[in-house]
Amino acid sequence: MERAFDFNQNIPKQSQILKTPVQLFNQHLIIGVELANLCIGEDRQVLAAMKPEAQKILLAKASDTKFKSEHKPIMLFVKQKNIQGDKSISLQEFFADHPTMSQENQALQYNFHENEGILEISIL
């Protein structure tokens, strides 16, 4: 896959990673180990759907066929962020498609729908 870089883009200043279960950090979604184990497990990829009208991102396991048919998601890679086991998912593709979305480093509100296996994250 070819990547295009915009060297004139304003990139948020790096700061400390917060002690919160879900946060936006340098255009990456950081998910704490406990929550990541519940919603992602050991998977290396995740399904992600952006709902700009609701300012939400939905995440589900890559094997979730119901989520795939309902939300028309994209596949994003999941990386281990640190030795504690926190997970990192790049959201740069969403920011490219939705430039008005806030890219500031911040703690994010979330709701994990355990029965559906969907992590709903509010991006303000």
Average pLDDT taken over every residue: 87
Task: Record the strand order, biggest sheet.
Answer: 6-7-2-1-8
Number of helices: 3
Low-confidence stretches: none
Total domain modules: 1
- Sheet-strand content, in percent, reads 25-35%
Question: Helix/strand/pairing class, anyone?
Answer: alpha+beta
* Main pleated-sheet profile: 5 strands, antiparallel
Gap between N and C termini: 29 Å
**Principal-axis shape:** globular
User: What is the CA-based Rg, rounded?
Assistant: 14 Å
Could you estimate the helical fraction of the residues in percent?
A: 10-25%
Order of helices and strands: EEHEEHEEEHEEE
How many strands appear in the DSSP assignment?
10
Features:
3 helices; single chain; 34% strand; five-stranded antiparallel beta sheet; 124 residues; alpha+beta
What does this structure look like?
The mean pLDDT is 87. Helix content is 16%, strand content 34%. It has a five-stranded antiparallel β-sheet. A five-stranded antiparallel β-sheet has the order 5-3-4-10-9, with helices on one face. It has 124 residues and is of the alpha+beta class. A hairpin with a 4-residue loop joins strand 3 and strand 4. The chain has one domain (22-122). It contains three helices and ten strands. The N and C termini lie far apart (29 Å).
